[in-house]
Write a structure and sequence with these properties.
Number of helices of chain A: 8
Order of helices and strands of chain A: HHHHHHHH
Number of strands of chain B: 0
Structural class of chain B: mainly alpha
Helix content of chain B: over 70%
Shape of chain A: extended
Strand content of chain A: under 5%
Distance between the termini of chain A: 71 Å
Number of helices of chain B: 4
Oligomer: heterodimer
Helix content of chain A: over 70%
Shape of chain B: elongated
Radius of gyration of chain B: 17 Å
Order of helices and strands of chain B: HHHH
């Protein structure tokens, strides 16, 4: 009973943080609300007994992703506002769709199954070992992609500037337009 | 408790779908994608508990979390690159720079 009450509060907190993350005008604020979503989600996972996932969610989503987001926003500039083009027309539609899905889910959900259970380590290392291999490959691909994308950022900007300067020097019309 | 998890996942799904429809900033779209993946992760764990195999749902959720982290790392690197090359993070301008 107590865990259900705490779980309901955590779900409510998680939804509120998610709404605020979507509504936030500035990127840094949105990143901090996302950290709130991650904290609520990991607390919820801890309450329902999924301790390993709670720790992984806490360390990766709340720790690493938040640090990476703040780092990227500080590199780009935190005062980059978001300019939504078509605002609340879809809000009511989305809310109605979600409520309909919840109602249908509650009606269609069968009784809980109590099949044979295994512990988390067995499930991860024995049943899902290809998933673990996929995760290792994904991490390597991610590291290589980031290295490829971020290598030579300064030279790209320098090349861009020098090309425009060169065009400005060569063509008096371009010089006039730029001035 | 399983119904509560499913309801939370569906509400998160609704919020993130609304955000994907409305938002035009590249980094904010990545933030909304994080919320979307959290909904998927909660649904997987709830499905595991509901089917009587919570460990299987948790093992799948680990894969989802790792893949999601890689997605946001590559997405942030792309955003930094796009900002340096085009000077904007607006999706419309990135897709169609002249219009």
């Amino acid at each position: 009973m107590l865990s259900t009450v705490i779980g309901s509060l955590l779900v409510t907190l998680m939804i509120l943080c998610a709404v605020q993350a979507v509504r936030a005008g500035h990127l840094l604020t949105a990143a901090l609300w996302l950290a709130g979503v991650s904290a609520s989600a990991s607390s919820l996972l801890f309450v329902i007994g999924a301790f390993e996932i709670a720790v992984i969610e806490l360390s990766l989503s709340l720790g690493l992703v938040t640090v990476l987001l703040v780092f990227a926003i500080s590199m780009i500039g935190a005062n980059t506002p978001d300019n939504p083009t078509h605002r609340p027309r879809y809000g009511l539609l989305t809310a109605a769709f979600t409520l309909l899905l919840i109602t249908l889910l509650n009606m269609a959900m069968p009784t809980e199954n109590t099949a044979a259970q295994a512990d988390f380590a067995t499930a991860l290392w024995s049943w899902r070992q290809f998933d673990v291999l996929l995760q290792i490959v994904l991490i390597f691909v991610g590291v290589l992609s980031v290295l490829y994308l971020l290598t030579g950022l300064g030279t790209v900007q320098q090349t861009h500037v020098s090309a425009s300067e060169k065009a400005q020097e060569e063509d008096p019309i371009v010089e006039e337009m730029l001035s | 408790m399983t119904t509560l998890l499913f309801a939370g996942a569906l509400l998160l799904l609704g919020v993130s779908l609304y955000g994907l429809l409305v938002i035009r900033n590249f980094i904010k779209i990545l933030i909304v994608l994080q919320i979307l993946v959290k909904a998927a992760m909660l649904a997987l764990i709830a499905a595991g508990y509901h089917s009587g195999q919570p460990a299987l749902g948790q093992a799948l959720a680990v894969t989802v979390i790792v893949a999601d982290t890689i997605v946001i790392v590559i997405g942030l690197a792309l955003a930094i690159r796009a900002q340096h090359q085009t000077g904007t993070l607006d999706i419309d301008q990135l897709v169609n720079p002249e219009g």
